[in-house]
Structures
1.
Amino acid sequence: MAPLHRAATPEDIADACDALSATRYATGQTLLVDGGLSLVV
């Protein structure tokens, strides 16, 4: 189970995409949207 204790919604992914596309200084990034699951050891 992800640390946020819920599955991502389409709106969660859309918000992350909007935030990344809104910045003019980020280039060639991979945005990991997994609710903190990658932090769990």
2.
Amino acid sequence: MNKKTDPFDIGAKDDLENRLNDINKRLGRDVKDEQAGEIKRPGNSGMAQGMRIASEFVSAILVGAAIGYAIDWVFGIAPFAMILFLLLGFVAGVLNVMRAAKDM
């Protein structure tokens, strides 16, 4: 009579891990335990990094200008809020570029 194992049994889990480690070694994909939890992302090309930085910079300026224009339109104080928020958007864009460059 065949005895079925419970898939939630600790012994079955250890057996599965041993079999997975064995097949990974056979395939040449021996991974250390501390590297197993890390997500590996492919490196971005220089063009992709440049486009990311440029889009973050431009979007911060556009969002600042849009918020300033909306405040000007609501309160009728044209162009003061737009100029102020355009400058704030520029500062935010520069900070985003610096942060993105530091991450690279």
3.
Amino acid sequence: MEAALHREFVYLWYYVSVQLDQIFLYWVLGLVIGSAVSVFGRDRIHGLFGRMQGERLGLLGLLPASMLGIASPLCMYGTIPIAASFAARGMREDWLAAFMMSSVLLNPQLLLYSAVLGTPILLVRLLSCLLCGMAAGYLVYRFYTRKGRRFFRFDGFGEPANRDTDPDRLRRFLKNLGRNVRATGGYFLLGIVLAALFQRYVPAEAFAALFGRENEGFGLLLAAAVGVPLYVCGGGTVPLLQAWLLNGMSPGSAAAFMITGPATKITNLSALKSCLGSGHFFRYLLFVLLFSLAAGWLTDWWLPRR
């Protein structure tokens, strides 16, 4: 019995060590870049978005709004007060929707993490998040902004407190980096362990049968559904996605998971419901599901079979 347990531990440690060798550097670089953007680039990013208000870009403004949302390092609880302050100054709600939607889905740190999944999946994640933000913004324009109706409810939201206030730039960066490590480190290690368990105990053939191209329609729907309860932290799901892709998950199923996961993360949902109201909140969930399925289908159509 002890020999069998020891053997299983050795196998699991092997998978854990392989995952760490492949991902740890990307995690560290993501932490460093994410903290650098948060400390030194956040105000500039939000300033660029604020300066869009005086431009007559119309629907063309959805593209830079979505891009700036991806570049913003804030979580949804930090993004909503920023969006509320922009709304109070008269910012178009369709631009706000694009900025907030893309900010929910991606940030510079998670984008760098995702490089370990390979260039095609990295591009899929970037493009799908960019287009999701623009699509959300267009729908708000089509059914609300154009008709002079309000979509968001920002009552009671004020400017978020800035925690990066140390006058020394290096200490300010190191403090932010420490908070980043504490916030993501546990989830990162949990993701490594779960990925090792999947690789050791879930047969690749069974996984491919559920999430592979041969089971395309159901696989996309299942991947989108799995993203709802399973997604807790982006850093923790990247190791899982890497293991799943190796086990036969189609790129489209991965794309669907990468949309529904962060978009329905429980902390994001509770923050969004506070500024959307019940009716708009359920429309948001329906939009996320439909967009994730469309993104998954297009990804499997675009990327060649491996």
